[in-house]
Amino acid sequence: MSKGKVLLGLSGGVDSSVTGLILKNSGYQVDALFMRNWEDDDGSPYCSIKEDFLDAAFVADQLKIELFEENFAKEYKEKVFNYFLNELKFGRTPNPDILCNREIKFNSFFNYAMDAGYDFIATGHYVRNKKNKEKTTLLKGKDKGKDQSYFLHSVRSEALAKSIFPLGTLNKIEVRKTAKKEGLITSEKKDSTGICFIGERPFPEFLNNYIPHDPGIIEDENGSEIGEHKGLAFYTLGQRQGLGIGGLRHAKNDPWYVAKKNLEKNTLVVVQGNNHPLLMSSQLETANLKLVNELDEKRFNGKAKVRYRQEDQDCFIEILDKTLKVKFKEKQRAITPGQSVVIYKDDVCLGGGEINSIN
Question: Could you give the residue range(s) of every CATH 2.40.30.10 domain in the chain?
Answer without folding.
Answer: 279-358
